[in-house]
Fold:
Amino acid sequence: MLVELKVNGEPRSADVPPETTLLKMLREYLNLTGAKLGCDVGDCGTCTVIVDGVSVNSCLMLAARANGHEVTTIEGLANSNELHPLQEKFEEHGALQCGFCGPGMLISAKNLLDKNPDPTVFEVRDALAGNLCRCTGYTKIIEAVIDAGRVMNAEQANS
Ligand code: FES
Ligand code: FES
Structure:
C-alpha cells in the first residue's frame, strides 16, 4: 500500500506491505536510519519518533496508521549548518556513551522542550520515562536537557 508522510518537513512516500511498521518504513524504505531497532516490543525507546507532536515507539506503529501525518525523526533535529542545542548539551555534559539510546532520548527531549523549554527534573524524567539507557545513569542526560532548555529560552528571548 502507498503510505504518504511528511517527514522532517518534506513529503515522503513508499509502497510498503500492510504489516510494515513505521520504523521499518523509515529505515528500509526512506533510508532514515537514525531511529534504531532495539527491543522491537515497545520497551527500550530507541525507535522513538514524533508523530503529530506525540512521541511514539515507531516499532509498534504501523506505517499505514501514520499515513497523512507529520513525522519528525532524529535526522530532523539539526539544521544543515548547526547542531540543535540538545545535541550540543548532550556532548558538553557527556550525556551519551555507547549512543544506542541517543536517537530516542534526543527526540523525546526535543518533544518536551518544544512544549516546555523550562522543565523541572521531574518533568524531564517523566518525558524520558520510555527511553532506557544502560550506560549513563540518566543524571547527565537530565542535566543536558535542562541546560538545552535554558539555551532555547535565551535564543527565543533574543529573537
Ligand atoms: Fe521500539 Fe525498543 S525498538 S521500543
Ligand atoms: Fe549507552 Fe544510553 S549511552 S544506552
